[in-house]
Amino acid sequence: MSDVREPQVGTSAESSARPAGEPLRVGVLGARGRMGAEVCRAVDGADDLELVAMVDEGDSLATVSGAGAEVVVDFTNPDAVMDNLHWCLERGINVVVGTSGFTGQRFDRVRGWLSDKPGVGVVIAPNFGIGAVLMMQFAARAARYFESVEIVEQHHPKKLDAPSGTATHTARLIAQARAEAGRGAVPDATKDELPGARGADIDGVRVHAVRAAGLVAHQEVLFGTAGETLTIRHDSYDRASFMPGVLLAVRSVPQRPGLTVGIDALLD
Amino acid sequence: MSDVREPQVGTSAESSARPAGEPLRVGVLGARGRMGAEVCRAVDGADDLELVAMVDEGDSLATVSGAGAEVVVDFTNPDAVMDNLHWCLERGINVVVGTSGFTGQRFDRVRGWLSDKPGVGVVIAPNFGIGAVLMMQFAARAARYFESVEIVEQHHPKKLDAPSGTATHTARLIAQARAEAGRGAVPDATKDELPGARGADIDGVRVHAVRAAGLVAHQEVLFGTAGETLTIRHDSYDRASFMPGVLLAVRSVPQRPGLTVGIDALLD
Amino acid sequence: MSDVREPQVGTSAESSARPAGEPLRVGVLGARGRMGAEVCRAVDGADDLELVAMVDEGDSLATVSGAGAEVVVDFTNPDAVMDNLHWCLERGINVVVGTSGFTGQRFDRVRGWLSDKPGVGVVIAPNFGIGAVLMMQFAARAARYFESVEIVEQHHPKKLDAPSGTATHTARLIAQARAEAGRGAVPDATKDELPGARGADIDGVRVHAVRAAGLVAHQEVLFGTAGETLTIRHDSYDRASFMPGVLLAVRSVPQRPGLTVGIDALLD
Amino acid sequence: MSDVREPQVGTSAESSARPAGEPLRVGVLGARGRMGAEVCRAVDGADDLELVAMVDEGDSLATVSGAGAEVVVDFTNPDAVMDNLHWCLERGINVVVGTSGFTGQRFDRVRGWLSDKPGVGVVIAPNFGIGAVLMMQFAARAARYFESVEIVEQHHPKKLDAPSGTATHTARLIAQARAEAGRGAVPDATKDELPGARGADIDGVRVHAVRAAGLVAHQEVLFGTAGETLTIRHDSYDRASFMPGVLLAVRSVPQRPGLTVGIDALLD
């Protein structure tokens, strides 16, 4: 952790006024949790970022403002995150949120708070994995050009749900892209099926969930048309894989006033 | 096609008496069918084999004996194959059969005919693909060492059954190998499943059937244990892929008196 | 092939004047070649297209104008294609070209001809495979977000060049995207290398060429960053795979006056 | 770790005299090293094994005999392992060795010591990964049936050598199997090669080494013949993957007097 310097009143939210070349000052809430600790390491290891505050349960949020944080990263819990967000926004501090539990109602409350703070940005993302986000973008884009598409996701056998949230979300994006392109049903002549063999049907897209020891989190989207297939595969082994996405959000949020949901919009 | 020479009485079934270095004389029944035509091309292209007879509906079987065939390959149809087999065995000609429709009863009849012909061999195989057979052998062998296993088969969307016969057979071989090794159920914590997501259950092995335009015939068997996975994958694009297995059977059958079912036993 | 009707003077180049709902009238040059014959089948099988002329060596181009073709597809040869193009453009017929041999000089000549025909479009593409084009687009897009990238292409063993033109082109697109994003060299600690093990170096991107019987044309682009990998794979088995791209060009060209090189721009 | 009970004189080496159903008593040398600690956890977690001694630098080997260990697992270092082995064999204790640095000379010395101890077994293995060993066995077995074969290994970018030792060993096994089956050179028409594109040549087998962040240790062996390919892939993420092989060796060694090199022979 970097040393704490005096807060510089008024600068935190005005990114355009930041001295060029100075590292961006970052505070982390939930710093002793698994994701939070990983974020601290990632921020600390980036030349253009400075870790100025590590806060966890029992610590005072004043540490964050006292340290002059320009961006706060929140990986706490659904019960704490709204208060944290409100506190930061009142002080004009940009926020990147990885904590889960966001609903339409919560997004609306955040938008309300932001309407009084025109220069301040918030990025809330359910998944900071750039690879996963690209996989979904590419899948949505390829969907309109291929006759067939199926998803095979593969996870460790302790996973409770099948298919994964990512697979379900991908299937919906694909179904929507097919509909927009005027594509009808995926061809399938199956007459004689052992129950379950053809997977789950999500908006007309078949999704198969493989569970095996040794696996972590993987997904394959297979597109096919006469004579060719296109496969997009994402393999995730480690929560370290979320860090490039978190850092991208940290670097982007001062230039993105208002609420941004998901890191898709940050990728271009 | 090679030219037809005079039949050499008595030599056809006595492979040990064959002049060393002379090509093995092969006749094909169903020579104008898709598989039969492919067999004719494959035999014709092999230095150690000589294509001496091509017979199809309307032709006389006498062509085969007249040409001195030592081995006959039958890719005809279920209605014709038993008569063809009987005719060949009576004349001491070895037979390789790829025609489908064989039941336990039919195997018994062939064994009965063979009991009178101690030097003659018959190989009947449902699948001549060496790759597919090796995939199944390897899967059965690996099954006892891994905690988890699942099968994903992938075929063109005109296929009527799901999963494929090969996948079903592979699952049964794996289940049997696990049982013999005293392995219990594959671990699976799934609590919340969209119907079909976890595939079909064949003797405790989950099997997923993917159908997409652009695919031909593919199968992947995934084994996993803490920290590692082993994947065996077979991709078949073309019936040419069956020819090495047919030629292996043709070359082996003179040395294998009696009935051999499947080409597994020929691989070693 | 559809029946030939009377030419309708003046309508061929004015796509906006086409009666809504009427199929687009298409002529094929090089209709008896392998690609041309495939194009004829594809056009004939599309509800919104009508195959009005099939022309090959020895046939008169007048067939095309006589049949009122609105779009001509040229899969002939480098010696014939420029004359064909000129002939079509003079008559205000849109052209889709799959014939190879185009250079900067040839493109300039086509642009010159088109400058006199403001409503007419030409699409010239080295590769009509939508899957291959998407693979390259996705690879170029992912390139900036990942620390590492390598390409493994796999082809049949009769291929003369290694790596393939597609792999070389993909590597260059990736190298350019990395440079634009300010990414330095791909990390690689290799000290002790058996010559060739690390592949060919194309603008800093390692490319590996696998050659094996049973393969057709395949390419995998692997991106990696700490904890995750993203893989984009394209498998092509058959020239049928180029047809969706050809038909897309046929349908698009009347709405795209001027010269379009590659089908990338048609995909959106 | 289990509690230490009184040594039972004379039973340690006489596995046949072990009370049925009692767990096998295991000691670990190098218990505080990364591999050793993992072995301790694995032994402790197995119902049929009892961890009776954990020894590392500075501890006395007497702990092992004092605890009545029937099998000792050595993951120490090349300088210590020979003394450890000698000490154990003198006391009739079976040994499983994962320490590296074994040469033909060292194997000879171990055989010499064992010649005086007919009932005692030693297993020395360079790699306890069952998945990797099966991959090599399957590759060697498939080699004779396919026209083509190539190896693609994939590792993290901090690896110093390319290709990996496992890939080199696999290539040699394949080359040997092809030679024994009378197979000639792998077909390859490459005329125009960018240096390195076709990989390293190990006894006629092409090997490609991919290095990318996000990867751990992976290997793919691709076999091909007209119309089909067979792929054997091993993915290793974690040293936990070696534990099933270590436990297999521990359970097997009391029934295998003499020296066993590698765990191949234990797999059946």
TrEMBL record, chains A, B, C, D:
Function per UniProt: Catalyzes the conversion of 4-hydroxy-tetrahydrodipicolinate (HTPA) to tetrahydrodipicolinate.
Q: What is this protein called?
A: 4-hydroxy-tetrahydrodipicolinate reductase
**Catalytic residues in the record:** 155, 159
The record places domain Dihydrodipicolinate reductase N-terminal at 25-128
Report the CDD domains cross-referenced here. Answer: DHDPR_N (cd02274)
Q: Give the start-end ranges of region Disordered.
A: 1-21
Family of this protein: Belongs to the DapB family.
Residue sites binding (S)-2,3,4,5-tetrahydrodipicolinate per the record: 156, 165-166
Q: Where in the cell is it found?
A: Cytoplasm
Listed pathway(s): Amino-acid biosynthesis; L-lysine biosynthesis via DAP pathway; (S)-tetrahydrodipicolinate from L-aspartate: step 4/4
Q: Which UniProt keywords apply?
A: Amino-acid biosynthesis, Cytoplasm, Diaminopimelate biosynthesis, Lysine biosynthesis, NAD, NADP, Oxidoreductase
NCBIfam families tied to this protein: dapB (TIGR00036)
Query: One Pfam family for this entry, by name?
Result: DapB_C
- The EC code for this enzyme is 1.17.1.8
Which catalysed reactions does the entry list for this protein?
A: (S)-2,3,4,5-tetrahydrodipicolinate + NAD(+) + H2O = (2S,4S)-4-hydroxy-2,3,4,5-tetrahydrodipicolinate + NADH + H(+); (S)-2,3,4,5-tetrahydrodipicolinate + NADP(+) + H2O = (2S,4S)-4-hydroxy-2,3,4,5-tetrahydrodipicolinate + NADPH + H(+)
Q: What class of enzyme is it?
A: oxidoreductase
Q: Which InterPro entries match?
A: DapB_C, DapB_N, DapB_N_CS, DHDPR_bac, NAD(P)-bd_dom_sf
PANTHER family assigned = 4-HYDROXY-TETRAHYDRODIPICOLINATE REDUCTASE 1, CHLOROPLASTIC-RELATED (PTHR20836:SF0), DIHYDRODIPICOLINATE REDUCTASE (PTHR20836)
Residue ranges of the Dihydrodipicolinate reductase C-terminal domain?
131-266
Annotated NAD(+) binding lies at 30-35, 57, 98-100, 125-128
> Could you describe the subunit structure of this protein?
Homotetramer.
